[in-house]
Amino acid sequence: MKLHLPNSVWIGNIDTFLKKMDTSNGELEISSHKDWISVHPVVLCMVTSLGLKIRHENKKILFQKMTATSKHYFHRMGLFKLLKLKSEMEIKEHGSAGRFIPIQIIKNSKELDNFITEMIPLLHKEPDKVEPIKYVVTELVRNVFEHAQSKIGAVVCAQYYPKSNTIRIGVVDIGIGIKKSISKVWNPKSDLDAISLALTPGITGTTRKVGGTGENAGAGLFFIKSLAKINRDFFIIYSGNAMYKLLKNPKNKEAKLIAEPLQDHNSHGEDYPYWQGTVVGIDLCLDQHPNFDKILDLIRDFYRRTKKQKIKERFKRPRFI
Amino acid sequence: MIEIKIYKKTGNFAGNKDIAKEIRAKEILPFIRKEDKIFLDFENVNSATQSFVHALISDVIRKEGIKVLDKLFFKNCNETIQKMIGIVVEYMQDTGKKN
Questions:
Q1: Distances in Å between the alpha carbon of A3 and those of A29, A46, A199, A273, B98?
Q2: What's domain A99-314's architecture?
Q3: B49 part of contact set with chain A, CB < 8 Å
Q4: Which of A113, A135, A209 has the CB atom closest to B47's CB atom?
Q5: What is the reported pLDDT for B99?
Q6: Could you tell me the domains of chain B?
Q7: I need a surface site. Which of A28, A158, B5, B17 has the fewest CB within 10 A?
Q8: What is the ipTM of this complex?
Q9: B98 Cβ under 8 Å from any chain A Cβ
């Protein structure tokens, strides 16, 4: 396995980073840009997940000494500690309040509740700004518990970028992946097909029944994608060999919710290095953030329209011949 | 009449589906036919996830039919929670047993 942390990775340009990864079995070798490294939290979660997987398999991690001036960031986010690596850095730690949530491993509901109670307030944002963050983290982490069978649980971290007033969030697991999970009920032809099904409202990996089961409606990822879409933010989901990226909805175009994810403004591919598990990254811009309630109105309208369409499709007219 | 205080179980953020499932299984379903009214009181709860609301009420609607909303009441819900409940009720409308 080989990973190179380049100069800059954010969701907009993550494709190149992903394509250059070597996820084949064996030792994990991590190298990095020599001058400056700036990566999206989802990348940190991926590095941590692979590292934990390697540790679990009792294999070696070869982490090339970082020389970049931004190397302290990786120390502060807890990467070296979690992977039991010597960081060789002496750092005077300041509080993380308002800026980042270090990498966390969440394995059960109790840990998730603690995370929501203790970590999210560290971001020091007004309650109405924090709600979507709580929402996204809770739903994504619960997906890991319920569908991923990840040996290490969910790896989560977040970073606030004051210049763009954006929170970037990553939630990663090394479980069975979306295709295997959703194949219990559906028949996806490929990893991309599986991702597409998982993002479609009303499709859950637990039943084919309309309305889902008592516990799953197949709406969680659709809600999160909708939040990113209406917010005109990035959202990425990567599992197996496939990557789906919701691109920023152009400002001059009305953001309308649609069921079929491949009809959204997106980029996708099926030729990525195989990721055993699921990777989700999202950006939430806090200042252009429409009211969360307004997004819920749009989602409700969407369900109404879908229902009307279904009724229309079922409606039979008499045929006079 | 039964009143269930959600805040006592979830705090101000209702996101834990396990709690929702427990409320549904232990405090709603066994009493829904016996009681004339069940109040789900969301006082002091700031927000709830769709998954939480779904786990709380979808199975009740499926098993009892949409008419169950004549005896299941949602109290002290802020606008966000009202909307979330509205969405779940919306997509559950034609899945329950016919009354």
A1: 6, 10, 28, 11, 56
A2: 2-Layer Sandwich (3.30)
A3: yes
A4: A135
A5: 46
A6: 2-92 (3.30.750)
A7: B5
A8: 0.90
A9: no
